[in-house]
Write a structure and sequence with these properties.
By secondary structure, the chain is mainly alpha-helical. The chain has one helix spanning 4-50.
Length: 61
């Protein structure tokens, strides 16, 4: 049986781990957002340059 102090220490450690994970996930999300913007920009430039529509139609089936 764990003491109240042991449970508190475990919870504090879990909070630290979750905060670290949260920071990592935010950094990954930010990088993915930047990547998506770059890809969209590349597609737009290619469409203007080559006059070819390349974006996928979401409504197409």
């Amino acid at each position: 049986m764990k003491t109240a102090e042991q449970r508190l220490l475990e919870q504090e450690q879990e909070i630290r781990n979750l905060r670290k994970q949260n920071t990592t996930l935010k950094e990954k999300l930010s990088a993915l957002d930047e990547k998506a913007i770059l890809f969209d920009t590349m597609i737009e430039l290619a469409e203007k340059e080559y006059k070819i529509y390349m974006q996928k139609n979401a409504d197409a089936k």
